[in-house]
Amino acid sequence: MTFYYLNYYTEQMKTMTVPPAELIESQVIHISDKHFTMLCYYSFLSTPDYVDLLPRLY
């Protein structure tokens, strides 16, 4: 399979050719598990005033 992507470092379109199985494998690793819970739902990002807490972290 051949697809095109933008290289953000050089700002040029690149062409990449990979076997279909390799392309599918590279995409499947980004699918979360069935019972995976995102941590941001339970961290300081879940509070309405997280905007006030962000400067304390940086």
Please list the strands of the largest sheet in the order they lie side by side: 1-2
Beta percentage is: 15-25%
**Can you write the helix and strand succession as a string?**
EEHH
Broad structural category = alpha+beta
Give average pLDDT, whole number: 79
How would you explain this protein's 3D organization?
The protein is of the alpha+beta class and 58 residues long. The protein has one domain (2-57). The protein is 29% helix and 21% strand. The chain is built from 2 helices and 2 strands, in the order E-E-H-H. A two-stranded antiparallel ribbon has the order 1-2. The model has no long low-confidence stretch (mean pLDDT 79).
Keywords:
21% strand, alpha+beta, 2 helices
Summary of the model, kept short:
By secondary structure, this protein is of the alpha+beta class. It is 29% helix and 21% strand.
Write the layout of secondary structure elements.
Elements: E1 2-7, E2 12-17, H1 20-28, H2 50-57
Antiparallel strand pairs: 1-2
